[in-house]
Amino acid sequence: MTRETAAIAESGVSTPARILEAAERLFSTRGIDGVSLREITAAAGVNSAALHYHFGSKEAVLEELFALRARPIAERREHLLGKLKLDKHGRPALENVLRAFLKPALEALNTPDGIAFTLLRARIVFEREEVKREVLRKAFDHSSEMALQALAKALPKLPPRDLYWRFHFLLGSMVYTMASPGRIESITKGDVNTSDPQAALEQLVRFAAAGFRAP
Hints:
globular; 11 helices; Tetracycline Repressor, domain 2
C-alpha cells in the first residue's frame, strides 16, 4: 500500500465513498476500459471483496458514480426549465431555455468534484458500448426531454428533425467546452479563458441561439 492509499484508508471516509472517489480519478484520466478492478481497489485502499460486496462490478461502480454526480446537475436543470417564464403565446425565450439547460453543467466545474466528473463524462460520450450509453440515458434523458419540449415551444416553426439535430450539436459544444482542452487558450495566447464558467455560458448561449434560429 502506498503512502497515498494508506492516507485514504485512514481518512475515515466510508468504503463505498473511497471506492467511488478512486474510480472517478482513474476513469477520468484513463477511461473506463483502461482501468481494472484491481487498480480501483488499490487506489481506494480496500480489498477486492469490499468492491464486490458494495457494487459487484466495474459497471455498477460507474452507474453509482454517475447517479451521485449527475443527479444534482439534472435536478438543477429540471428546476430551472420548470420555472421558465412564458410570453403571452405560452412560449419561453430561446436564450432562457438554453441558459437553463447549460448553466447547471457549466457551474459544476466550480465544485470540488466537478472537473474529474466532467472529464469522465466527456470520455463516456465517445465510448459506444451500450452499458455506457445506458449510464448517460439514466442520468440525463429526462432533463434533455424537458429541454427539447421547451425548445419546441420557443421555436414552434422549427421542424422536429432540425430541432433534434441542433440539440445534438448543442450537446457536443457543451461537452467540449466543459472538457476545456485548452485549444483556444493556445490559439489566442491566453486571451480567451474557457475555464471561466460564466463567460463560457454566455458565449455558448449566444452561439447556440444563432444556430437554433438559423433557416
